Each structure stands twice: as structure tokens, then as C-alpha cells.
Amino acid sequence: MTAPKPLLVVDAANVVGSVPDGWWRDRRAAAERLRDHLVPVAEQGVQGLPGPPEVVLVVEGAARGVPSVPDVRVEEAGGSGDDRIVELVRAAGDRPVLVVTADRELRRRVQAHGAGVAGPRTVYGGGAS
After folding, report:
1. Per-run averaged pLDDT (10 residues), the chain, 129 residues
2. For position 21, what pLDDT does the model report?
3. What are φ and ψ of residue 105, in 5° steps?
């Protein structure tokens, strides 16, 4: 039996907000750009997570309505995006999990459930320095 893929969970609001590219004018479009940027990440993987991962992008608020694409599943948070991310980490069981966010409180919460954490630049530079 093949082991399940490791899980990469991306905090869309936090990662998009880390790049000052005008995201605040259209949060949904910014989340779509991030989603599309994650497709090669799903194929190549990231440092700190073995193998090509299953990629989940968690959106909330004005970014809801972004559809999934092959290789990147989009999860809409009904309320707090952070709470949805913690739920995904808890549901992952023994799979390796890496959460991409710069949110200190969210990092603490997911680490308490065994997930690794990485900053936004792990997956998204957005062209900013």
C-alpha cells in the first residue's frame, strides 16, 4: 500500500497579504493568483516536506469562491481560516504536514498538533523584495 502524500496547507490570507501587490483591491483575484502559483509546488514539492505534496489552499472572507484546480484543492473557511487550517492539520493523522503562514498564533496552534511551519516565501515571492 502506498503511503499518503504529505500535506501542504497554505494560509491564503496571510500569504497573499505578505506581498504588497495591490491584493486588497481584489482579494479573490489575489487568491486565484496564489492558487495558480501553487500548481508547480504541488509537482515539485517544497523544502522541509518530503515528496510532492497534496496542496490545500485555505481561503476566507472576500476570497471565497475561488475554485480548485488540478493539483491544488481550495478549501473555503466557513468562519475563521485559522480554525479551518487547524482542523485540516488535526484530520491529517500521521501524514507529514507543513503549514505556510507567518501568523504566530496559528503557527503555535498547528505545531501543537505536530505540523511543521514555514513562512510565505516558501511558496510565494510575488516578485516583491
Report:
1. 86 88 84 94 86 93 92 93 96 94 96 95 64
2. 77
3. -65, -40
Please enumerate in sequence order all residues whose Cβ is within 8 A of that of 76, keeping only pairs 6 or more positions apart, or say none. 59, 60, 64, 65, 66
Could you tell me which of 47, 58, 57, 53 has the C-alpha nearest to residue 122? 47
Name the amino acid, one letter, at 19. Answer: V
What is the bridge-based pairing of β-strands 72-76 and 54-59?
parallel
Query: Which residues are CB-neighbours of 119 under 8 A, at least 6 positions away?
Result: 18, 100, 101, 102
Which residues neighbour 44 within 8 Å (Cβ) at sequence distance 6 or greater?
52
Backbone angles phi, psi at 55, to 5 degrees: -110, 130
45: alpha, beta or left? (left if phi > 0; alpha if psi -120 to 50):
left
- Alpha-carbon distance of 47 to 122, in angstroms, equals 8
Q: Give me the residue label for grid cell 473555503.
A: 76
**pTM of the full structure:** 0.92
**Three cell numbers written together for 89:** 492539520
